[in-house]
């Protein structure tokens, strides 16, 4: 992994999101996925990323 965040790719952020989700860290997974979605050029791809890692702090009830 790189030490310069500017060198990270969308795939790097999504890999991190998957790792954080697997480690039981849903908020960090959400933040990493949001950054991945922000960096994607295609809006449809960005929209497909966000629902996979929803914000666990949002009250939906």
Number of domains: 1
Q: Report the radius of gyration as a whole number of Å.
A: 12 Å
**Could you say which overall geometry the principal axes of the C-alpha atoms support?**
globular
Average pLDDT score: 90
- Beta-strand residue fraction: under 5%
Order of helix and strand elements from N to C terminus: HHH
* Total number of helices: 3
How many angstroms separate the termini? 39 Å
Question: Using DSSP, what is the number of strands?
Answer: 0
Give the helix level as a range of percent.
Answer: 55-70%
Look at the helices and sheets and give the structural class.
mainly alpha
**Poorly predicted ranges (pLDDT <50, ≥5 residues)?**
none
- Characterize the main sheet: none
Walk me through this protein's architecture.
With about 60 residues, this protein is an all-alpha fold. It has one domain (about 10-50). Helix content is about 55%, strand content about 0%. It is built from 3 helices and no strands. It has helices spanning about 10-20, 25-40, 45-50. The longest helix is centred in the middle third of the chain and has 14 residues, at about 25-40. It starts with 9 loop residues before the first helix and ends in a 12-residue tail after the last helix. The mean pLDDT is about 90.
């Amino acid at each position: 992994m790189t030490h310069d965040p500017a060198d990270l790719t969308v795939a790097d952020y999504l890999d991190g999101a998957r790792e954080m989700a697997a480690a039981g860290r849903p908020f960090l997974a959400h933040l990493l996925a949001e950054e991945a979605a922000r960096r994607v050029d295609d809006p449809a791809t960005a929209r497909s990323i966000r629902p996979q890692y929803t914000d666990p702090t949002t009250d939906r009830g």
